[in-house]
Amino acid sequence: MTDDAPRYDYAAGSARTVALSVGCEFELNAAQSVPAILQIAPRQQLGVQFHREQWDTTSDHHGYIDLYENRCERVTIAAGDSRIAYAAELLLSDPADVILPDAPETPVASLPDEAVSFIMPSRFCLPDELGHQAWQLFGAVAPGWGRVQAIVDYVHGYLEFVPGASNPWTTAADAYRAGQGVCRDFAHLAITFCRALNIPARYVFGYIPDIDVPPPDEPMDFAAWFEAYLDGRWHTFDARNNTPRVGRVVVGRGRDAVDVALITSFGPLTLTGFQVRADEIMPPGLTDGEGSAGSWP
Question: Is 157 helix (H, G, I), strand (E, B) or coil?
Answer without folding.
Answer: helix
